[in-house]
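[Q] Does anyone have a clean C-alpha cell version of this?
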Amino acid sequence: DWIKYMDIQEKRTRELGIVGREGIKLLPIYTRFAILLSYNRYSRLLKKIKESNYNISKRTGLNTKEKFIVFIKRILNKYE
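[A] Here you go.
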C-alpha cells in the first residue's frame, strides 16, 4: 500500500531530522540561520506532501507566500 509505505518514510525522515537538528547546534553560529531555514523549508514541504496524500501525479512545492511564512517563523524562532 503506497500510503502506508510513504507514512513510514515520512516518519523515518522526521526522525533523521531530529538527529540532524542536534548536529546543527555544533555548527558555527554564523551558518546556523541558513541551515535551520533550509531545514524548516524542507519540513514544511514534507508536511505539504503528506497533506496531499502523497500524490505523485503533480509536483508539490512551496509558493512564495509559504516560503516567506517559513522565513518569518525562522526569524522569530516560532517554527515547529
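[Q] Thanks! Anything notable?
[A] The chain has a mean pLDDT of 91.
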